[in-house]
Amino acid sequence: MKRIVSSIVAALPIPAGLPALALTLMLAALAMPAQAERADREKPISLEADRISVDDVQKVQIFEGNVVLTQGTLVIRANRLVVTQDAEGFQKGIASGGEGGIARFKQKREGRDEYIEGQGERIEHDARNEKTEFFVRAWVRSGLDEVKGNYISYDALSEKYLVTSGVAADGKTPAKVEGGRVRAIIQPKGKADPEANKGEALTLKPAKTVPSKE
After folding, report:
1. Pair 68, 48: CB distance under 8 Å
2. Model-level pTM?
3. What single string gives the DSSP state of each residue in 71-91?
4. Which domains occur in the chain, in start order?
5. Mean pLDDT in each 10-residue stretch from start to end of the chain (214 residues)?
6. How many other CB atoms are found less than 10 A from the CB of residue 208?
């Protein structure tokens, strides 16, 4: 089947916020200052897929079948990607499926020859607030550091992570899972690595309350 290639000129976007119970961790400024490549926001978005459906009235584009989105160093691979645009031109994308039922995300870190990588059964990216969310079988790695859980939210502006062990039945909100655990592997940053010392030290904070999703 002939592949369809679409090019969009804009600053990419994939939403966030939510309520949760225990087993929620705030990884504030993970020793890895994982700031996305700033130049990517000014690059055109290129999309490749087997099928595409466009609704110009509702500003919705649906890409299906071996979807590959690229914007500068940013690459998202999935089986299905839905891109919407608001009245101000900001875009949001929801990627789902892929090899093994997993969607994948990769982007170069600002000023370093290193990448942020993440995956989940669903990935949502919002360009307006520069937040990326990973749902179910979620995993994010930056350099040698990584976090795992059933839900991970990464805020590129504040450089903070929210990780929980479960997702509610609506598939949208983090939830407590009895006996559930989240995992974080943080590699020590030696004094011999001046780049590593630019970030703040890792702090793990139990989050008793999390803002409701708007």
Report:
1. yes
2. 0.66
3. ETTEEEEEEEEEEEE-TTS-E
4. 4-206 (2.60.450.10)
5. 52 33 31 52 83 92 94 91 89 93 88 84 89 92 86 81 66 52 66 48 41 44
6. 9
